[in-house]
Structures are given as C-alpha cells and as structure tokens.
Design brief:
It comes from marine sediment metagenome. The chain has 195 residues and is of the alpha+beta class. Helices cover 53% and strands 23% of the residues. The chain is rod-shaped and about 140 Å long.
Length: 195
C-alpha cells in the first residue's frame, strides 16, 4: 500500500489513547444505557409475569365464583320448592295458603293413619314479601306409633311444613292431640309502587 505510510510510535500511542478514551466514553455512557435498558426489560418481564399470574387467579376465581353461583342457584331452587304458592298465577294469600296447608296436612295425616278432627282459624304474619301462616289442627289416632310416621312425613314434606307446637294425650284406647304447623310463601312479583 504505497499511499498509506506507516505510523510512528508517537502516532500509535495517540491512536491507542484515543481508542482508550473512546472506549471509556462509550462505557461511561453506554453501560448505564445498557443497564437501564436491561432493567426496563426486566421490569417489563416482571410486570408480564405478574399480569399472567393475576389473569390466572382471575380465571381460577371466575371458575370458583361460577361454581358458587351454581350452588346458590341450586339452593334457591331447593328453597323455592319448600315454599307454598298461590293457585295458578294468583299470588299467595292467607286464605289460599291456609287451605293449601290444611290440605297438605290432611293428606299426610291420612297416609299416616291419623284423623284430623278440627282446625282453627289460621294466623298469619307478613314481612316485606314473606308470608307466614300458622295453622293449628286437632287430631285423633289409635296407634301411637303412627305419630312418628306422621311427624316424619310432615318434616319431609314439600312444600315444607314446620312444626311449631305439638301435644298429645291418651284417652282410653285412643290418642288425641293438637299440632301447629307453619307454612311459608313469598311474593316474588315486583311491586311497581316500590312499597
């Protein structure tokens, strides 16, 4: 290479110092930039990892809440089956509910060998959209063991009949007593007046 001359030792030293200086400048400015870029990348990766974990938890929670919702819906169906309803599309009223309770108790009594002799006037209480009706009935039976069958059938009945009072006494060869059963109903229609 005829056009390029060889470098003198002084030029080589200056060139080496320039390279060292350039390297120091690059390292002093480049290293922090590289470190900052690396830290930003590490933070982005950490954020993505946390986002993925959060999404996974949300998916797991969504499945959990969906299962809870299904359980609650099933419980509501079970509870709705235990409530008395009105006749047809009519809302439940005290007389209708009392008649339904009497009919159901008489049916269970007949299946159990118990004779219903009389019934008193039903008492009711209303709170919000709930209606509670208590019905007291008098009964007779000849076999004492029929009592347990009668009570068990009342307890297992649908719509649900709760027993709030029970008494029984023996008269010669017959047993007689009183029982108060409670039935519930709920007005599920919306009230346009907001009462």
């Amino acid at each position: 290479m005829p056009g390029l001359r060889t470098l003198t030792s002084r030029e080589k030293i200056i060139l080496r110092l320039a390279l060292v200086l350039a390297l120091v400048i690059c390292l002093s400015y480049g290293a922090p930039l590289a470190r900052e870029h690396y830290n930003e990348r590490a933070q982005t990766i950490e954020r993505l990892r946390l986002d993925i974990e959060r999404e996974q938890r949300l998916q797991d929670d969504a499945e959990l809440w969906q299962q809870r919702r299904q359980d609650i819906d099933q419980q509501l169906q079970t509870l709705d089956a235990q409530l008395f309803t009105g006749n047809g599309t009519a809302l439940p009223t005290v007389p209708v509910l009392a008649a339904n309770i009497q009919r159901r108790v008489r049916q269970i009594a007949q299946e159990s060998g118990v004779t219903i002799t009389s019934s008193s006037l039903a008492e009711s209480r209303e709170t919000d959209d709930w209606l509670l009706v208590e019905q007291t009935l008098s009964f007779n039976l000849t076999n004492q063991s029929d009592t347990m069958d009668f009570l068990a059938r009342l307890d297992a009945s649908e719509p649900r009949l709760a027993i709030s009072y029970f008494s029984m006494r023996r008269n010669r060869n017959m047993y007689s007593g009183d029982i108060t059963v409670v039935g519930f109903s709920r007005d599920t229609s919306t009230n346009p007046e907001g009462d």
